[in-house]
């Protein structure tokens, strides 16, 4: 694997992206950039992002310097245009932060939707059967499987993500993850 090759890990909610990212860190000894955590961190710490989000959403976006998640969620869920407007502010900041991080590995749930696939050379898609994904997310987030299905409905179809990816890792709780990852890493 050449040292400048950038690799993304993606997959639908409950597929086990974070678990696979931790395994990759263990195997390679390299840190994996987590786009979701980075977005949350940047929304808390970047003065430029704070100003842009406040201008978009309103004065109640931050209360005493802290992100008002309820106000952001209400704005976000009000319309597709609102969600896109937030993405147009947050995504470029996360992309720049990733590139500045000098890390090769990235974990990103909305890799293709955000256009972040253009930042990497190879894509690993993590998959799991629907019933496994539903159980994982319902247990992890303490929500009903109907709520999980709603979240899944907002994401790109897993088959489409697989088709756009270079590699697929099956994370069904039975297939050997480590063996799959070592084979992929050897091939990159």
Walk me through this protein's architecture.
Helix 4 crosses helix 5 (80-101). The radius of gyration is 17 Å and the shape is globular. The strands form two sheets. Strands 2-5-1-6-7 form a five-stranded parallel beta sheet, with helices on both faces. Helix content is 58%, strand content 13%. The termini are close together. By secondary structure, the protein is of the alpha/beta class. It is built from ten helices and seven strands. 28% of the residues are buried. The protein has helices spanning 17-28, 35-45, 47-57, 69-78, 80-101, 111-114, 130-141, 145-153, 158-164, 177-187; strands spanning 7-10, 32-34, 62-63, 66-67, 105-107, 122-127, 167-170.
Structure, briefly:
The chain has 188 residues and is of the alpha/beta class. The protein is built from ten helices and seven strands.
Level of helix content?
Answer: 55-70%
Largest sheet: 5 strands, parallel
Instruction: Calculate Rg over CA atoms.
Output: 17 Å
Strand content: 5-15%
Order of SSEs, N→C?
EHEHHEEHHEHEHHHEH
Look at the structure and give the mean pLDDT: 94
User: Biggest sheet: strands side by side, in what order?
Assistant: 2-5-1-6-7
SS element count, helices: 10
Structural class by SSE content: alpha/beta
Write down the overall geometry.
globular
* Oligomerization state: single chain
SS elements, strand count: 7
The separation of the N and C termini measures 5 Å
Low-confidence segments, given as residue ranges, are none
